[in-house]
Amino acid sequence: MTQLSINGKNVEVDAAPETPLLWVLRDHLGMTGTKFGCGAALCGACTVHLDGAPVRSCRIPLGTLAGKKITTIEGLGGRVGTAVQAAWDKIDVPQCGYCQSGQVLAATALLSANPKPTDADIDAAMSGNICRCGTYQRIRSAIHDAAQSLGA
Amino acid sequence: MNAMDQENFRVDETQESSAPNAARRDFLKASALLGGGLIVGLSLPAKNFAADLKPVAANAWVRIAPDNTITLICHRNEMGQDVHTSLALLVAEELGVDVNKVRVEQAPVDPVYINALLGGQITGGSTSIRDAWDKLRNAGATARLMLVAAAANAWKVPAAECSVDDGFVVHKGGRRETYGKLADAAAKLPVPGEVALKPRAQFTQIGKQQHRLDTHAKARGKATFGLDVSQPGMVYASIEQCPVIGGKVASVDGTKAKAIKGVIAVVDIGDAVAVVADHFWVAKTAREALAITWDQGAGAGLSTERIRATLRDGAKKDGAIVKQSGDSAAALKTAAKTFHADYESQLLAHATLEPMNCLALVGDKGCDIWTSTQFPQGAQGIAAARSGVATERVRIWPQFIGGGFGRRLDVDFIGQAAAIAKAVPGKPVKMIWTREDDIRNDFYRPASLHTMSAGLDAQGNLVAFESKMVSASITNRMFPGVVKNDLDPFMTEGAANLTYAIPNSMQRVVIQELGLRVGYWRSVSHALNAFAIEGFIDELAHAAGKDPVAFRLALLDQQPRQRAVLERVAKESGWADKLPAGRARGVASMESYDTHQALVAEISQAGDKIRLDKLTYVVDPGIAVHPDQVVAQIQSGAVSGLINALRSKITLKDGRVEQSNFHDFLLLRTNQMPKIEVVVIEGGDKPGGIGEVGVPLVAPAIANAVFALTGKRARSLPLSDEKIEFV
Questions:
Q1: Which of A16, A38, A94 has its CB closest to that of B218?
Q2: In chain A, where does the domain assigned CATH 3.10.20.30 lie?
Q3: CATH of A2-75, one of 3.30.450.20, 3.10.20.30, 2.60.120.260, 3.10.270.10
Q4: A103: nearest CA in chain B?
Q5: How many Å is the Cα radius of gyration of chain B?
């Protein structure tokens, strides 16, 4: 049994320590908001926060997570997360939507660390998150929009 | 295309719900005639409603519950292209209810839901709105008339004195009743025959600003994709497929894999070996313990070079004539100047972000399939074939699609899941492909070769134009019988509908099989044909010493809508303004899916690379049902077009796909994006398609801009193969 702290709750998981966090979330805990895209930390669909920082859960073994705080799309809230999701709603960012949990988590981490990101900051923080539909322009607008609403 | 055997269209009459069958059948007769479908009954999906909330089906698309819940049974699958909201808008406009009050439920497989433009229950070909435009507005209007009639009967007033107000029927005397309260009585009334639809000027929802109905869920990880479905007792499967294209399992020793904790079964399904386990990660890692001998088959000798040689061989054939005017051979002989060029496009993977996956259960009740699919009817057919369950006992539960792009028109993975589920009866099995499985087992966008010839007269006028496209036919594999006289309608698109008037022209197509399975990839042959035609037209404009926009406009006298988008894009992009050194623009123009468009790409030199600065689109879809999502689809098509244009390719060696994941099959990332501007004009009296429109002009517009910037003419894709590198 491994003890995890997910979205502010302590949970126990019975899985091999090398099992990636992504599959622990999806298959063991039934939290399917975090998506599988590549299994190689190349697309960002599986992005979650580990102690507040955005990470690719497909490459993080369960055995390394003791004592760390994990936040997934299901538990995203707070001032920044709420502003990001409101901007996503306002601009109608998603198309197929499959990458959007990861995009929202990555954007929230960016704005938490950098309340007024430039376009170059957005490129640096978001280029690890692929959107195959191509919602990039709206993601960029929504991040600026959320930054503005947070600064107001 | 007549997609499926009539056998699959049977409907179990015993499963009729409690809805008023006589009236509904009458309506269905009407709708079947409208849609060109079959006249049959309809079984709506069984749902567990509380007894007092038993819904009343007004017709196949609209269901109204006593609590006034209004549901669209959406017969097209949502893959980002906005069918849930756009189709709901068509119903809501005529039903007289705010679209935000409409719930959307995915339709089961049923003949009433057949796409009249494609002949099957298919989401593709940018047809959803075009097929539904009359059908769903009629469905909404019919339901509204029946609700009004029910209210008029109850109140003993003339129906003409009643109107509707956002889910209520209202009498001029002030009485009001909800649709929900009236639905039961309405459903017992005769179905109106002729239904008058609102004139466009009276639209209050179609064509207006409106949020997507699925945004909220998708921004919160709450939309359920195929990969997310769960069933009690669910187990997982991961499959090993032959590394050589087309290879089969010769034998397998699963002893070691079966010994791994959590592994339930090892199943040889012929085209793959499946490991079934209690968790996906166990199934995936246990694959490494399989000892499989493969029958590699004929694919072992396949390579990118061989495919190109096969295409060159195909170019020696005459092929079939797509379109012809005058005498191009004679005109070429007498032209003042003649030109010849070959254009090539590459193999591409679809690379949907949600890898192929399917949850299947085979048991006493038949077969249930939960999956993301563009072709529920095909899913039902293949699940029946591979599970051994009769078609009418196979139920398809379509989910949100995490990217389609044509990949999910194919149902291979659904058949695999059904075959695995058959081996572990009673257990729901979720089969998931890894990204590597997905890149290496796709139905690839076929490579193509175009041979082009043209002649200019002494004044630089285009007097002769010939094109020959050589490529593989997807339709031959998928819908045999649709290809007639060597003409595959999905290969001639982009050529047959050429808008330019050329006095002597000949367009041909050669079907040349390439030895691997090919699939429909967003915009299909429009992209292949547009790259060759719009690139070559640009060459001719420069050779004639004419401006590329003016050269095209001179060929569009008979095409007012095409002229309009081209003139407008010149204005919006500042085409007439001189650019500083190191910057350049390229233009391209075409009609596709009944929508006209023109595109200007603006680029600049950035060291030894090129920066994409801006794509300016002007698009005329006739009518824009959901304007913001028309823009979104063009923005999205642009990205697919950039994938086609810049760097991405599938290559083969010894029958094996050389790419495996996103480090070598490259997709666009946000830092590589140009600015995209989209201007929508509405120059028609009905909507055209939009989901694929943004794709095909990107490559030629950029290649034409590269010529303007550097003097280098790029004639093969991706442009990186021409040593043109982008920032």
A1: A94
A2: 2-75
A3: 3.10.20.30
A4: B219
A5: 27
